[in-house]
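Late entry, written up from scratch paper. The run itself happened at the end of the previous shift, but nothing got recorded in the book at the time, so transcribing now.
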Amino acid sequence: MTTTTEQLSATTLLRFATAGSVDDGKSTLVGRLLHDSKSVLTDQLEAVALASTNRGQEAPDLALLTDGLRAEREQGITIDVAYRYFATPRRRFILADTPGHVQYTRNMVTGASTAELAVVLVDARNGVVEQTRRHAAVAALLRVPHVVLAVNKMDLVDYAEPVFASIAEEFTAYAASLGVPEITAIPISALAGDNVVEPSAHMDWYGGPTVLEHLETVPVSHDLTACHARFPVQYVIRPQTAENPDYRGYAGQIAAGVFRVGETVSVLPSGRTTTIEGIDALGESVELAWAPQSVTLRLADDIDVSRGDLIAPADDAPAVTQDVEATVCHVADQPLTVGQRVLLKHTTRTVKAIVKDIPSRLTLDDLSQHPAPGRLVANDIGRVVVRTAEPLALDGYADSRRTGSFLLIDPADGTTLTAGMTGASFAAAHDGGTDADTSAEDAEWDF
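Output as recorded:
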């Protein structure tokens, strides 16, 4: 008989994030999803029931299953990103429930940065609002390939199909203009459970999947082996023991692709070329390794390699540059200004840098570019040009989330200032810039 563990190991994993404006019902949706899919332990449900009773509520408030902070429970809002892990017989899930307040939009960047799908909630009574557009823009910016529009609180508009159709049409047009490759609209009532796990008896006009059914069946690809091979060096291993007097290995996690013994590789940014002499994984020598394995590479030549260097196939190495142009989401309370000195962290490498220019800031209402704003404040999305003190080997973000992204950090206190995505973006495509011509080939966002 197949065990539960064996069944789960055979299923795929989907990382997804929820987002939406304040009081759109994100936490209630997540709670309903966990409750109706039988993913809540008895003691958790009892604790929620007790907390709900103490607040004067007759029925258990399922939003409390995700709003873990005391401040969240007292205010009935989500402040931090709440991660939940659950599974059904068909798929395993890692869920990030992100906040709805404008000042916490940066938390969505954290939650959606590794997501394959984003669920954007809209209150059926309010329709698409500015924060809805902001969340769609962040999902597009982060190359989340699947977006679900969950039109919530349909029970409060008498389950009217025209209300749903109007909201779905407006959001789909907006998200499609950002280049989101797949948008699925689902009418729901998280409080009543309509179309969350079970189909709704009140909306016979809707023939699509429930939220859980879509989550279980949406195609996701975790095949990083087809991507450009990249290996950021995390640590140099030199035991210098009697058993291994000359051992020198370079340890790290393969960001993408496959590496093989005997393959010719380049060490960047120096550009020195050598071959892979050996690969060690879990204490044993192997002939090949692939993402996202953590391994140690041994090189044939004794060349200078240190933490922060990038090892890549010699015939498929990324460009090395000191001028970084990217689309960013500013996440710090303090603004980012032209001329500001920062640290740029890219994979395992951190270098000094200076903000040379902020060419534009995105206006979410009509996707126009506000030229030369001079600064970006918290939750702004814009383009920046950064000059680094040392060369970096960067891919375009559309090709690789791992090696195409970076952080700008305050050198004084280590505060994360900005999350950046290099290369083409929806902002460049709409701006008519040089990256616009690459939008077609990136349309599928398959990485």
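The chain is about 20% helix and 35% strand.
(Scratch paper discarded after transcription.)
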